Amino acid sequence: MRFMLMHRVPEDDPSAYEPTPELIERMNAFVGKLTADGVMLGAEGVRQEGAVVRRRGTAIRSVDGPFAEAKEVVGGFLLVDAKDLAEATALAQEYITCFDGVEEMSVEVRRVAELEDIEPYLTR
Questions:
Q1: What is the pLDDT of residues 58-106, one digit of tens each?
Q2: Secondary structure (3-state) at 44
Q3: SS3 readout for 59-121
Q4: At what angle do helices 21-36 and 85-96 cross, to 10 degrees?
Q5: CA separation for the pair 71, 54 (Å, rounded)
Q6: What is the mean pLDDT of residues 29-36?
Q7: Cα separation of 12 and 110, whole Å?
Q8: Per-residue b/e over 96-117, b at no fewer than 16 CB within 10 Å?
Q9: What is the gyration radius of the CA atoms in the chain, in angstroms?
Q10: How does pLDDT run across 93-123, given as a tens digit for each residue?
Q11: What 3-state DSSP class applies to 34?
C-alpha cells in the first residue's frame, strides 16, 4: 500500500523553509535507507509561497499564501510503500527525527487511494 507522510511545520516560522546542512544530511541518509529498503516512491519539500483555491457552494476563489489563518502548513512529503498503517506510522516516527532541533511539527500519515478502492464507483 502507498502512504503519504506529510510533514507540517509552523506557518510563521521562516526557518522551517531554510533547511540546515545537518537537516539535509539526515534527510539524505533517511531517504537513502528507504530507497535501499525498496519502500521509497518519492519525496519533495515545498516552498512557502503558494495559493489556496476554495469552493463554497458555487463560489470559487483563490487566495495567495503565506496563509495567516493556518497554524501549520505542509513543508514537504514522502511517498512510501508500506504493508499497513502501522509500518507507515513507524516510518513517520523515524522521518520526524530528521528534523532534530525543530521545536514543533507533525507528520501526517495518509493511505493513498488505489484503483481497487475506487473501482466500485467507476461507471463502465
A1: 999 988 765 556 677 888 999 999 999 999 999 999 999 998 888 788 9
A2: strand
A3: EEEEEECCCCCCCEEEEEEEEEECCCHHHHHHHHHHHHHHHCCCCCCEEEEEECCCHHHHHHH
A4: 150
A5: 18
A6: 96
A7: 24
A8: eebbeebeeeebebeeeeeeee
A9: 17
A10: 999 999 888 878 899 999 999 888 888 888 7
A11: helix
Q: Which residue type occupies 109?
A: V
Is the Cβ–Cβ distance between 66 and 48 less than 8 Å? yes
The CA dihedral of 88, 115, 38, 102, to the nearest 10 degrees, is: -40
Residue 77: phi, psi to the nearest 5?
-155, 160
What does the chain come to in residues? 124
Check residue 10 and give its pLDDT. Answer: 82
